[in-house]
Amino acid sequence: MSAFRVNVDDGASLHVRLLDADPSIKNKPLLIALHGAPGFSDHREPENSFGFLQSQYRILVYDARGSGISDLKQPYTNERWIADVEALRSESHPMAGAEKIVLAGGSYGGFLALTYALAFPSHLLCLILRDTFAWGSRGMMNVLKQILTSTRLKVNPDRQLRLWAGYLRDKQDFEDVYTEIAPLYSPDLPDEVGETIDGKYTSLKFEGANKKQDGRRFHAATQDAAFGFNVPRYDVRAGLKDIATPTLVVVGRHDLITPLEYSIELKKAF
């Protein structure tokens, strides 16, 4: 595993990690995995999701601009974020580059993966879409509905409105609002119960529930741009039929944030 910084064309510096279990194997395909939740999530999410593939692929994960420890350099737009993906793909960065890539994105990372597929189709080997959707406004309103109607949560409605409308007061406001909704992202099970695919039991606590221990960085301006400006304008439904890249769509059957029906719609559209 190697960690390094990549400076893109506008001078922003991105924190990048390249996972490669056996660098002696030459010409392994490059898989770039995009994290969700700009301003909240970081490279650890896709590293945990896709790291097991590093014997077959070079796995590149990174903190998007405005997230983690990458530069907090605006603009925080989908167009700029996919330009950063293209910079990492570019062979001008030999540690990261490849002529064609496998692109994986979960949640908001799926928005960017789909947007990239429409802008740079010739640079893709295939797409992996996890827990995502093609129409931003409907998806965002579904999340707000789940939050405000959940019997598991006790939330401040005004604070939730600030989160999803994109006008958080500050970093502390951002931390407080995510602490409120953390249980929605975890199974409705006792902390010690959670069956894995090999039949063993493990904890399924929400990673972000203890923000001080997991070292998460909250960047309110990035979140505001993503959900106050970008998501209401994100709608790639009309372009899905033009994506010829082989695509895998994956979702949890009981996902409340990105319901199964959204992934079924994606599958039918390709």
Distinctive features:
270 residues, alpha/beta, Rossmann fold, 2 domains, 7-stranded mixed β-sheet, 9 helices
Task: Explain briefly what this protein structure is.
The chain has helices at 44-50, 78-89, 108-119, 136-149, 157-165, 171-181, 211-214, 220-233, 260-269, and strands at 2-7, 13-19, 30-34, 58-62, 101-106, 124-130, 247-250. With 270 residues, the protein is an alpha/beta fold.
Record the SSE blueprint.
Layout: E1 2-7, E2 13-19, E3 30-34, H1 44-50, E4 58-62, H2 78-89, E5 101-106, H3 108-119, E6 124-130, H4 136-149, H5 157-165, H6 171-181, H7 211-214, H8 220-233, E7 247-250, H9 260-269
Parallel strand pairs: 3-4, 3-5, 5-6, 6-7
Antiparallel strand pairs: 1-2, 2-4
Explain what the structure shows.
- InterPro entries: AB_hydrolase_1 (IPR000073), AB_hydrolase_fold (IPR029058), AB_hydrolase_sf (IPR050266), Peptidase_S33 (IPR002410).
- Belongs to the peptidase S33 family.
- It comes from Talaromyces proteolyticus.
- Keywords: Hydrolase.
- One of its GO terms (biological process) is proteolysis.
- It is built from 9 helices and 7 strands, in the order βββαβαβαβαααααβα.
- The longest helix has 14 residues.
- The chain has a 7-stranded mixed beta sheet with strand order 1-2-4-3-5-6-7, sandwiched between helices.
- About 9% of the residues have low confidence.
- The chain starts with a strand and ends with a helix.
- The chain is globular, with a radius of gyration of 18 Å.
- With 270 residues, it is an alpha/beta fold.
- The chain folds into 2 domains: 168 residues, Rossmann fold, CATH 3.40.50; 93 residues, no CATH class.
